[in-house]
Each structure stands twice: as structure tokens, then as C-alpha cells.
Amino acid sequence: MEEGDKVSQEKATSTPWGRFIILWFCCTLASGILPGQALFIELFAKAGVFSSVCSAGDSTCKDQYLSLTGVFQGGATLAYCFGPVIGLFFDQWGARAVGTAGAAVCAFGLLLVWVSVQGAALGQDANTSAVFGLGVIVCDFGSMLNSFAFIGLIWHFPGRQALVLTLSNATYQVSAFLPIALEFLMRLTGLSLAGTMLAYAGLVTVITYICWLIVPTQAEFFREAKRTLGMPLPRPPDRIRACHMLGRAWEVLRMNSWDHIASGLALAFGFAFPGFYASLAAPYGEALFGSKEAGNELATLYVSLNGFVGLVLAPFVGSLADRFGLLIFVLVLGLIQTVAVFTCGFPSWPAQAVCATALVLFSTLLTLFISRYLLLYSPPNRFGTVQGVYALVVMLASMPSTFGGLGLTAVLPEGPIAYQIPMWIFGSSGALALYAYAWYFMSHPPPDVPTLLPDDEAELARNFGCSSLEQVMYVTHIQTRKQLLKMLAATDPEVTYQLIRSIDTERMMEMMAKLDLEDIATMMETGGVGEEDEEEEEVGQQETAESRPLLENRQDSKNSINSYKAGLALALAPTGESERRIRLLGDRYAALVVAGDKDGLRAYLLQESVEDLWAVTLDMETRFTEAERKKTDKDFSKLIPGGEFAKLLRQRAELRNLLQKIMKRELDRKVAWMKGKKMAG
């Protein structure tokens, strides 16, 4: 069986669907209370949270609902303020750490919510209602952190990344069913809302431990990416440079500022209507149909539709967006708002079902639009941060209208009109803004390829030994920047294979020869050379166990470190004994690596001729087994990582030729493997 077939078979048999399903349910349960806010607000109002703002004798009131809505809307916005840096946390610490911490934070937020609900039950709402707002914010932030647990599995499903991402996003909407489940539990057991919330917090605490057990570590994430792509991902920086990354993301957005202002305003106006309706579904239903039961039914209808759309429709909307393009996408968003604004005022259950469905679908498509839109503007290496900054700005821009609508409802007379007037204003202005943006989009289409910052282009090109994307196009025989950037941004491993297979190593060496020495040294420093995943090392321990005694035997016989100086004269003998001389040098090199002699390796690289160093490389390939060679290369990379080799390169410029030869040989081997062939010789 060919090596490529073995790898494919290994991927097919090791796809962790059971692990995925467990994590899917865990993330759904740890999504907090915001997705089901339409019904949760009704439950909290009945439990007496913010009842202190009502007149004496009133069990619930409009001001109470508005206070709860303001907390949910404000909490969601404040949680979004942390969105741009969550991606940086993921890059730095990995899915397990971020996902587990997110579940723990969510559990703590739910515990704070329980304190508020329990305080209201004991008649202390005036003293404990402030804790409710803090609990909502903490819970929302924790659920956002926990959602990144799914990203840790993205490379475990080669060729199915889009499905994995779509299903992971669906957990947020499916969690809208949670208040329905909690209501059922309360009726079944007789528990109060306070007791149910305490049990929910305990469940999410258990989920925290489950996440720690099943979410991939950062090491596993990188290992699976390397196995899927055939090449390692760039390692994260040693420290988080949040301000720098956020500043660079802001610079990306500023390069097409008018496009982003137009789209951001349209989305901000469009977002206000769904948020307002979702938060006030229960009191609006009561005012519209004249009973508290009807209000509860409308809130239940909304959260049920929210969960249904997330579970059934969300996996398909992405492909529809790709098929019809963003212009049609924007027009559809405007049409959905139009349908919602024309149906929201009718005291009819079919009309409210149509309105709620339209608004749920709008919210789903809005999130998808932001992702698809920013793919056209953001370079692939900054997409996560750019998306976070853009979403934050849109949320902040929507806050004045959101709280303005709540204020308008507060001053309007009791009855359906207090909710309908803000809805009509939000819906009509949102639809008009989206239609206006569609007109702007037609006359100002997005760029064919994302506009790159100068250092972004250099970073992407450096991975190919080039200084610009034009040089990368030359090396890979790709005709346009648009095609190249699309391939660089793809998560489909087949696209990555295609890109690697297209590399012309002769052209790559030609481009590297044009680079300054400092550029090559920088490439070594930033390329993650010599870094090894801990779990990958564990996996390789069994494979290399047999190779270690062989290497140690070489060291213990005539190749011991103590005999290095004695054998050096022989190593420098005339060319008549060149084969023996190169073999001895190779054994010396292996002995230095086994002994962990970093200083000896530095001297070896600085003193031996480059021709002999290259000859040793070729000799070891013929004499050492593959397991021995991998073990030696791994240990060498730990002793002389990329940054250390860059220092040696600056000391001895001749090492550049050795480096280029080694890179070309390794790349030739990788490209040949990608093409399903084996290197000869």
C-alpha cells in the first residue's frame, strides 16, 4: 500500500465522531441564557427579578421587562467587547484551555444569576438585582470562550471543515431550547426557578470537567493540522500582543473604510429589530393577545423557531450564500426585514409565526454575512481578529437605537402600540438601510482579493521562501493573486495539497537566492523551526524506541563524545579517505545530538566545511533508518531551534547554501509524496 493511501486510511478510521457528538451537546448546554432570552426573560420576571421597579402589588410590569431586556442587550454587547481577543487566547493556549475555562466561567455566571433569583424569592430583589446583570455578562462571555472548543477538532475532519464549523455555530441557536427544557423540569419535579438554575450551574460545572477530558490540546491541534495538511501550521507567538494585533486588524478595516462604514451601518440598523423582538416577545405577546399565557406562548414560539432554524436550516445557508453571492444575500436580508415589519403588528398567530421565523432567519444570516463579507477584505492570517473587531463595532453602533427603542417603549402608553412603534421604526429603517447598502454594493463592489498590509504579504510569502506574493505566484505557477489568496485562506486539505503540489522547487531556490541573508534569518526565526508538539513526541516515542539504542550503540562504540578530538584528525584526512571521513563526521554529529551537546553542535556547524556538512546529510540518509533520522532531526531541532540557527547563519553566511539545499530536498520529498510518488535514491 502506498504511503498516501495509508495516511488516508488512518484519517478515515480515526475520525472522532463520538467525541464530536459529546462536545456538541456540551457546548450546547454551556451556551448560557442569551439564546433563549425571549423565554428566559419571562421566567425571570415571574420569579421576581427586578420586581422592585414595579408598583406595590404588581407581580410583573412593563418596567420590569424593560429592565431585564436592557440587561440582556447590554450584557451581550459587553460580552462582544471581549470577542476580538478570544481568538488571541485560542492561538496562545489552545482549544482545551479556552473551552474548559469558558465552561467554568459560564457556570460561575449561572451561579451569580441563581443568587439574584434566590434573592428575589426571599424578597431581597432590590439588593440582589445588580448581581443579575453581572451574572448575564459573565455567562455570555463564558459561552463565547467555550464555543472555541470546537475549533480544536477542525483538523480531525479533513474535507469536512465547513460542516464542522456550521454544526458548531448551530449549538448557540439550538441552546434556545434550554428554557423550554428547564420549564419542563420545573413542572416535573416541582422545583423553583432558583433550584433549577442552581442545578443548571452544577451541570455546566460537570461539563467543565468533560471539556477538559475530550477537547483537544493545542499540541493535538497542531499535530492533526500537520497530518491533514501535510505541513505544520505556524506556531503561536511566545506572548500575546493583543494591542498590536487589534491595531493591525483596525488598519485592515481602514483600508476600505467607506465600504465598512456602509455595511456596518446597514447591519447595525438591521440588527436592532430582531434583538428588540426577541427580548420583549413575552410582554408583547401579552399586550397583543391579552393574556399572560399568550405572552408565554409567543416567547416559546420564538425560542423554538430559533432552535429549529439552528438545527435544520443553518447547515445549508452557507452553501446558498456561496451560490448566489453577497449582493443577493443583502437583498434577501432586506426582504426578510420587510416581511417581518409588515407582519409584526397583526394580532394573529400565523402572522406572528411568520414574523418570528423571519427575524430568526435574519439573525442567522446576519452572522453568516459578516463572515462571508470579511473573507473578501481580510488577509487569511488576520481573519479572526478582523472579524471580532468588525462585529464589535457593529454591536456598539446598534446600541443607541436598541436602548432608544427601550426608552420609547417605556414612555409610550400601555398596550401593543408601545412595542409596535419601535418595531416599525426599527424594521423600516433596517430594511431601507439594507436596500441602500445593496445599491452601494453594486456601485462599489469588494476588491477581487483582500488588500494586504505590507508585513502581512511578507509573512505569507516568507512561508514559500519569497519576499512577495508575485514571487509566490511564480514559484507555484499560479496565475492570479485572487486564486493564490483563495487557496491560502482555504481550510480544505485538498486545496492545501494542490498548493503544495504546485510548488516548483527550482523556482523556489531561485527566489531564495535573491533574498538578503537577514530575510532568510528572519524566516528561520518566525517559521517555528525546531518546535515540536508534546503529544506528537509522545506518539513518536514508540516509533523511535527502536532507533534510540542504535544511536546510543554508535555513541558507545568508536563514536563516543570523549573520542571526538582524537578522531578529528582522521576526519580532516586527505580526500583519499573522504568516504570514511564523511562517515565519521556523520557519526560524530549523531553522537553530539544524543549527548545533547549544544555547544558541540554549534562548533560543528561553524567549523566544518559546508560541502562536508551537506555530504554528511546525504550519507546519513543512506545509512540511518527513517526512524533514526527522524529522531536525530527532532533532537537537533530542540538543541538548535530556528532562532538559534538564525544566529549561526548571521555568523557564518556560508550556511545559507546548506540551508537552501536541505530545504529543497525536504520540499522535493514532500511534493513527491503529495503527488503519490516516492523519492528515488
From TrEMBL:
Keyword Transport: yes
Classification via Gene3D superfamilies: MFS general substrate transporter like domains
Membrane topology: Multi-pass membrane protein
Basic and acidic residues bias spans: 545-556
Location relative to the cell: Membrane
Gene Ontology annotations of biological process type: amino acid transport
Entry keywords, A to Z: Amino-acid transport, Membrane, Transmembrane, Transmembrane helix, Transport
TM regions (residue ranges): 21-45, 65-90, 97-117, 129-155, 162-182, 194-215, 261-279, 299-317, 324-343, 349-376, 388-411, 417-440
Disordered: annotated segments: 528-556
Top-level taxonomic group: Eukaryota
Ranges of biased composition (kind: Acidic residues): 530-540
SUPFAM superfamilies: MFS general substrate transporter
InterPro entries: MFS_trans_sf (IPR036259), SLC43A_AATransporter (IPR052599)
Gene Ontology cellular-component annotations: membrane
Cited PANTHER family: PROTEIN FMP42
Family the UniProt entry places it in: Belongs to the SLC43A transporter (TC 2.A.1.44) family.
Name under which the protein is recorded: Major facilitator superfamily (MFS) profile domain-containing protein
Originating organism: Polarella glacialis (Dinoflagellate)
